[in-house]
Specification:
By secondary structure, this protein is of the alpha+beta class. The protein contains three helices and six strands. A hairpin with a 7-residue loop joins strand 4 and strand 5.
């Protein structure tokens, strides 16, 4: 896997993935940025949310759960001193579908956190990561 980050101007950067996709990152105005993109540390949280959601959806599909939507709301706290690593992260999954089984959703979320999500396993070295979920039934 490869990636590349290129400085554009001010405190703006473009990240290019090995698969050919790009994303703009920028700093806050008080850091010299112009607020034109996601902050780099926000990208870490987005990566965690994407990785965990990918796992949850895949596990539920393999369990033949009729999943219609999966969203994860992430809250995080950072250390007060440099390096300002994440110290606490909470993932709240909102899973929507027809006749979802609560135990299967619980298992999918737990398996992602405990076994499959690479981003979670890396970030748990500095942050206490917790998770929960809610079911939204369509029937």
């Amino acid at each position: 896997m490869k990636a590349r980050v290129k400085w554009l101007d001010h405190m703006s950067f473009v990240g290019e993935s090995g698969s050919g996709h790009s994303v703009v990152m920028d700093g806050a105005p008080e850091s010299g940025g112009r607020d034109l993109g996601v902050r780099p540390m926000e990208m870490l949280l987005l990566g965690l949310g994407g990785c965990a959601s990918f796992d949850v959806v895949m596990i539920l599909k393999k369990a033949r759960q009729n999943i219609k939507n999966c969203e994860v709301e992430i809250t995080a706290e950072r250390a007060d001193t440099e390096p300002k690593v994440f110290t606490k992260i909470h993932l709240h999954f909102i899973v929507e579908g027809d006749n979802l089984t609560e135990s299967r959703v619980d298992r999918a979320v737990s398996l992602s956190a405990e076994k499959y999500c690479s981003a979670s396993k890396m970030l748990e070295k500095t942050a206490a990561i917790t998770h929960d979920f809610e079911l939204v039934s369509q029937s």
